[in-house]
């Protein structure tokens, strides 16, 4: 697997914290053998598109008059593949931050310890994220696939960058090959990556990129239980 440096940004309205965070991240990343480049910003002044192309977002929850939670929600709507990690001195925000389902919540009072845990996890995540699985003689990254749909003798694989791959195979075969990842069937012809699910309500699943998919009646209970287990696992991080 080709080594890839993660591009990260810290958005925190206290410029004096930027240097502290950078030093702590460099130390933790070196210990974890995780390659990451960091950019620091105090807020969203200027063109907001300048912050769209990062892999990891370390976001302060209180950004002056702005809300880090609202910023994170907007980032996820525009690109569902982002890793959101909140950094805050106010630990009472941890439950409110669950609206975004961040990967972690870093406490500023124990910055070094929390960053060590975060970078060790991100290293494993990065290794898994860029693992490729051969499907019908084509290499696919399961972690960057949002959902799959069978079409007669083919499966359409929809990726986080908006592209799709049509392969001559069965959905059952793809499901088997992706079994180590977080997928769930929502229909005889469809399965989704739980990493990209925004919400499940009634007979519909909404993905973080805004895609809405129908859940068949036969799968509604299984989806509800699977989504509940997934969400509980997210809570256990905290």
What fraction strand? Answer: 25-35%
The biggest beta sheet reads:
5 strands, parallel
Helix content: 25-40%
Count helical runs: 5
How many β-strands, per DSSP?
17
Give the termini distance in whole angstroms: 31 Å
On the 0 to 100 scale, the average pLDDT is 86
Instruction: Spell out the helices and strands N to C.
Output: EHEEEEHEEHEEEEEHEEEEEH
Inertia-based shape: globular
Given as residue ranges, the uncertain stretches (5+ residues, pLDDT < 50) are none
Radius of gyration over C-alpha positions, nearest whole angstrom: 19 Å
Order of strands, widest sheet: 2-1-3-6-7
What structural class should be given to the helix and strand makeup?
alpha/beta
What would you say this structure looks like, in words?
The two termini are 31 Å apart. It is built from five helices and 17 strands. With 238 residues, the chain is α/β, with parallel strands linked by helices. Helices cover 30% and strands 32% of the residues. The protein has helices at residues 15-32, 68-78, 111-129, 171-177, 220-236; strands spanning 6-11, 36-41, 56-60, 62-63, 66-67, 83-88, 104-107, 133-135, 138-140, 145-151, 154-159, 164-167, 183-187, 190-193, 197-201, 204-207, 212-214. Strands 2-1-3-6-7 form a five-stranded parallel β-sheet, sandwiched between helices. A five-stranded antiparallel β-sheet has the order 12-11-10-14-13. Strand 11 and strand 12 (164-167) form a beta hairpin. The chain is globular.
């Amino acid at each position: 697997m080709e080594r890839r440096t993660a591009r990260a940004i810290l958005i925190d309205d206290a410029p004096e914290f930027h240097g502290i965070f950078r030093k702590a991240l460099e130390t933790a990343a070196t210990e974890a053998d995780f390659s990451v480049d960091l950019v620091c910003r105090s807020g969203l002044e200027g063109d907001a598109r300048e912050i769209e192309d990062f892999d990891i977002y370390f976001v302060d929850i209180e950004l002056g008059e702005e809300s880090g939670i609202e910023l994170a929600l907007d980032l996820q709507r525009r690109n569902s593949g982002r890793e959101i990690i909140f950094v805050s001195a106010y630990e009472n925000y941890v439950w409110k931050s669950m609206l975004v389902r961040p990967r972690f919540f870093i406490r500023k009072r124990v910055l070094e310890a929390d960053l060590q845990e975060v970078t060790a996890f991100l290293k494993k995540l990065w290794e898994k994220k860029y693992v490729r699985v051969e499907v019908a003689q084509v290499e696919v990254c399961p972690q960057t696939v949002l959902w799959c749909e069978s079409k007669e003798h083919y499966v359409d694989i929809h990726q986080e960058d908006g592209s799709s791959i049509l392969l001559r195979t069965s959905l059952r075969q793809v499901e088997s090959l992706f079994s180590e990842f977080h997928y769930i069937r929502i229909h005889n012809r469809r399965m989704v990556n739980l990493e990209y699910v925004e919400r499940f309500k009634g007979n519909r699943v909404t993905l973080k990129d805004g895609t809405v998919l129908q859940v068949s009646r036969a799968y509604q209970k299984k989806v509800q239980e699977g989504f509940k287990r997934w969400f509980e696992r997210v809570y256990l991080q905290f």
